[in-house]
User: What shape does this take?
Amino acid sequence: MATTIASALFSSNSRLPAGRELQRRAFNPRASSSSISLKEDIVIVGAGIAGLATALSLHRLGVRSLVLEQGDSLRTGGTSLTLFKNGWRVLDAIGVGDELRNRFIEIEGLVMRSEDGRELRSFLFEEEAPGQEVRAVERRLLLETLSSRLPLNSILYSSRVRAIKKQGTGDTLLELEDGTEMLAKIVIGCDGIRSPVAKWMGFPEPKYVGHCAFRGLGLYPAGQPFKARVNYIYGNGLRAGLVPVSQTQVYWFICFNSPTPGPRVDDPSILKNQALELLRNWPSDLLDVLHNTPDDVVIKTPLVDRWLWPCFSPPAVANKVVVVGDAWHPMTPNLGQGACCALEDSVVLAGKLAAALKRGNDESVEAALRSFGEERWGRMFLLTARANLVGSLLQWDNPVVCGFRNNIVIPWFVRLAPFLEHTNFECEFLEPVAST
Ligand SMILES: Cc1cc2nc3c(=O)[nH]c(=O)nc-3n(C[C@H](O)[C@H](O)[C@H](O)COP(=O)(O)OP(=O)(O)OC[C@H]3O[C@@H](n4cnc5c(N)ncnc54)[C@H](O)[C@@H]3O)c2cc1C
Assistant: This one.
């Protein structure tokens, strides 16, 4: 492949000391001019889970990419994510599974309770869903681990893409917030739920589903007291959960009905009080986790999704621009699958793209991107719909219906194995090749 301006910039042999600040300074094309045109073969927009996992998958297959991130560093907020066995398959395939596994508790089962603390049902994964692997992972550490395996200067921070234009040559012009222009042969939009790349491709805005989530991370410096179980607690139009993350951290969430997303609140201490207010008289172990949560790690998120309707939704790919992860299929977190699916997307896309690039013609690349979209569409459509449906059922607020759910459906009819069937996903280990 032709040497690009950016890869020439990257070719410096001097390895810098650790630290994103230095990395950023090492590759700051805007240091001397506000509008330099750069050329890249593959540009990934967004250094979230999808972007970093795609960059790392490509890197292991010997393909270089440049990641543009709007923030001036990796996102450190976002508390934790529960990753199921499909997520772990991918993390293993890209060589970071064990490093992360060692830092987070393996969850052995789950307990369902009502808001008065009564246990409705409990499961052990090894009995009900053997082979399942569940761990809550701190998002910050996941991002840092993925980025630490990328070659130096793979991520260009403070680089917000504000406009996208197709060129006559078939390349794509990305215009950054500061006026820098970048020409890319292939653009991979990993820019999350409000993706400008998806918008440019004709996707509508994701839709608010009628409930919001509070999330936080309780800290127990002397050791947390919980068994390695996910706890789900169900009330009327309100539910909460807690998941041990490590020996000293416990992740919690609350989902509550709200006709609108409500005003944006930036003060986390107000958010924490609002969360506590919702849970008055709820089980004391849950409240204890909230009390042990530093204010600044409490976040509120209005939940949204976008269904990939056959015939109506644009395809994931248009002229060598492709969307991945939340940028393509934002889904509600009711199945804990958004990040897992973003990871799945990344290995599938990278595998197809790397094989096509070896063949070395535009048609192969276009076919590979199309094949990615076609292979993944059905699974993503169904999971997005299923997550939405599960959320609607769990957010019921009618006391009679909730009583029926808590006293009949959960104790007698819920089965774990079929519920977790969607976590079956296989992918091959991406054997690392010498870096490009
Ligand atoms: C309440 C809640 C709980 C969740 N729990 C789970 C869970 O337990 N398990 C699970 O698997 N998933 C969960 N998810 C879903 C998960 O968080 C997302 O699916 C996942 O973060 C998607 O990753 P992504 O990389 O596609 O997008 P993001 O993580 O949103 O990353 C997008 C990146 O793109 C950057 N960006 C955006 N716009 C631009 C631009 N114009 N230019 C440059 N960069 C840009 C952003 O700064 C960001 O770094 C949850 C979601 C929510 C809301």
Observations:
- The chain has two domains: 5-27+34-76+142-205+307-387, 96-138+209-299+396-423.
- Confidence is low (pLDDT under 50) at residues 1-27, 29-34.
- Residues 45-51, 68-71, 75, 81-83, 160-161, 190-192, 196, 213, 215, 301, 325-327, 333, 336-340, 342 surround flavin-adenine dinucleotide (CB under 6 Å).
